[in-house]
Write a structure and sequence with these properties.
Distance between the termini: 68 Å
Number of helices: 9
Mean pLDDT: 91
Strand content: under 5%
Number of strands: 0
Helix content: 55-70%
Structural class: mainly alpha
CATH architecture of one domain: Orthogonal Bundle
Oligomer: single chain
Order of helices and strands: HHHHHHHHH
């Protein structure tokens, strides 16, 4: 007879996500995971597989969590420019127990060059955000809020790249004035 699990799988996955987010993939050992997640090593392997499999599940959990936040922002009644600004400002909103920065960007920097599965996940999620921005820009052009002289595809590339860079910047400074200025300057492109 199989034993029932003595832990909440989503809760321990959330803990693994947080540890990988804080320390990175390479620096996080199996022992770190076992201790932080509060489960036995055998249970971890049985439930999540090896360290890489656990990391990929934690990364997907992170992406789903952030996707839900983005969907919440996109479903608010607001202008297109405000929706795009909110994508940037979302990066600044974090709880005390949330690590600084973005796990997806961290993964891009740490693993994308030598881990095809991680690189594929990063590329897909970056493209998803780029597509959201593109669709917002089209909507803004249809309503007249965004000038028709902009190429929405190229502008979505630029804004997504700026958003990724901004996610890195928040790891290096907590200067709110500087960060707000970066958002304002980036948003200024939409006024031209």
């Amino acid at each position: 007879m199989a034993r029932s699990k003595e832990f909440d799988e989503k809760e321990v996955l959330r803990k693994a996500m947080k540890l990988f987010w804080h320390q990175g993939y390479e620096k996080t050992s199996m022992q770190d995971l076992v201790e932080y997640m509060g489960i036995h090593r055998r249970s971890m392997y049985d439930t999540f597989g090896d360290k890489h499999s656990l990391f990929m599940k934690a990364l997907e959990h992170y992406c789903d969590m952030m996707g839900n936040k983005i969907n919440t922002i996109m479903n608010q009644e607001q202008t297109v420019k405000q929706a795009i600004r909110n994508l940037f400002e979302m990066t600044l909103q974090r709880t005390n127990e949330q690590p600084v920065g973005c796990l997806l960007v961290n993964t891009a920097v740490e693993l994308a060059l030598h881990d095809e599965e991680a690189a594929d996940t990063v590329s897909k999620r970056f493209f998803d955000t780029e597509r959201i921005i593109y669709e917002l820009l089209l909507r803004g052009q249809e309503s007249g809020e965004i000038s028709a002289h902009h190429n929405p595809e190229k502008l979505s590339w630029f804004l997504n790249n700026s958003l990724v860079g901004f996610r890195v910047m928040v790891k290096t400074t907590d200067d709110k004035v500087k960060l707000a200025s970066i958002i304002d300057m980036t948003m200024g492109v939409l006024d031209s």
